[in-house]
Amino acid sequence: MGIVEKIGEIEREIARTQKNxxxxxxxxxxxxxxxxxxxELLEPKGSGGSGKGEGFDVQKTESVAASYEFTTLTxxxxxxxxxxxxxxxxxxxxxxxxxSSGKGRGRQVIAVAKTADLVLMMLDAKKGxxxxxxxxxxxxxxxxxxxxxxxxxxxxxxxxxxxKVNHTVPLTKCDEKLIxxxxxxxxxxxxxxxxxDDYTIDDFIDVIQGSRVYIRCLYCYNxxxxxxxxxxxxxxxxxxxxxxxxELNLNIDYLIETIWDYLAxxxxxxxxxxxxxxxxxxxxxxLHNDSTIEQACHAIHRTLAANFRxxxxx
Length: 314
Description:
Structural class: alpha/beta
CATH architecture of the largest domain: 3-Layer(aba) Sandwich
Number of strands: 11
Oligomer: single chain
Order of helices and strands: HHEEHEHEEEHEHEHEHEEH
Radius of gyration: 23 Å
Number of domains: 3
Strand content: 15-25%
């Protein structure tokens, strides 16, 4: 039995198992096995690579727009110029059901998506919810967590001493026995575990795997001109959502502004001693809003951080 068949068998067993107190340990064990098999599927042993996927040959052409689906067949790069910053945009082929198992060049699309700072999920406004559920399920299966913070769970493996589980808040979604069961499935018998919040066993499995990627996602519903005003208003009020019409060029400016906000970029203006600060549209450093002074120094020159003494904040 291959890995894909094993994954399907475990998924069917999880689906038919009732969720209650008596079955939570069995379900936790199944979820741990499922995560291990999915990891093996994405990073097959003996591949000789880094396990991050094959990727694409980037084509320097224009994206094709048509009235039918799956017009994009490879990775097509583009650039958005906004607030003096160059934001690289990669137009990827759409993924189909089973992409997490490699169907429809799914592994290649996922390999690129894992390296992004933001996922812009393009959806058809008339059937957006169906597409959204499918895409989220496929990305979830390969370890991409959308609009979700990284779990504050401390896990340190040790050479001996057994497993010690502590928590700073009461745990209502899992208990120490379930945590131990999952750790033993991963052949971890000596470790320190600290839960800093009330997390599920799925979150704990993500921490054990260590390969999960937490990315912000913006759901973009196209063809909003085919809907009623009430339906458009309903979509626009959903979390992390923007409605547009590419054909009529509706709401594109707001989409670009929202992309800028979700990327959480800031501009740092510089001033040379004795000169006025450079405040032009193209001046300044573009950094993430959580960047440190050291990172700003590296962005200017790689040797600046070693000679840095102080800075003046205006």
